[in-house]
Amino acid sequence: RKSIKIHDFDGYNVAFSVLTTGYTRAFEDYVDNFNGLVQSLYIAENLNCPLFVIAEMSNKVVVIGRSNGIEQEIIDKKTKKVVSKKLKLNKVIKRLGKGGGGHHEAASITIRSSTPNEIYDHLFYLIFSEINNIQVSNIMTAPPAYCLSTNTVQEVYNLFLQRGLRHM
């Protein structure tokens, strides 16, 4: 259980395990059945939330997701009401890169151009944005606010006041 960490995404739990070369050398011969190993881990740990295993193997990193399909109840930030959410693993995995896919409850991808920690950080962000339904329109102004290097501090300050901005 030490290698699995459960993260709380505003009430929605997701489990992660990052296995670097030191851990994966022991089972690199079983890469063809790595999906089966992850499924066995998921069952053995009796998890009631999605699990993502990120494993470094030779010159690639394999990411495998498993879920039991159970919805989790969280509080919607906008409506303040309790809603049921279910993370679709294939949707998240496809956003990690080309070649990824699978099903709502089982998905995987092989990535050759990133480290396990880089993939973990990217996956963490993708899950957070998926759980919270974050879209560009939620975090950007329209039309875009901008300033030039020739603007004075007072001009930029006035722009902040006019548009209700806190940062650019």
Label the overall shape.
globular
Most strands sheet: 6 strands, mixed
Report the count of strand segments: 8
Q: What level of helicity do the residues show? A: 25-40%
Query: What distance separates the N and C termini?
Result: 42 Å
Strand-helix topology:
Layout: E1 5-9, E2 12-19, H1 21-24, H2 34-44, E3 51-57, E4 60-66, E5 72-75, E6 82-85, H3 89-96, E7 101-102, E8 106-111, H4 116-131, H5 136-139, H6 153-163
Parallel strand pairs: 2-3
Antiparallel strand pairs: 1-2, 3-4, 4-8, 5-6, 7-8
What does this protein structure show overall?
Helices cover 32% and strands 26% of the residues. It has 168 residues and is α+β, with helices and mostly antiparallel strands. It has a 6-stranded mixed beta sheet with strand order 1-2-3-4-8-7, sandwiched between helices. A hairpin with a 3-residue loop joins strand 7 (101-102) and strand 8. The mean pLDDT is 83.
Highlighted features:
168 residues, two-stranded antiparallel ribbon, six-stranded mixed β-sheet
Characterize this entry briefly.
The chain has 168 residues and is of the alpha+beta class. Helix content is 32%, strand content 26%.
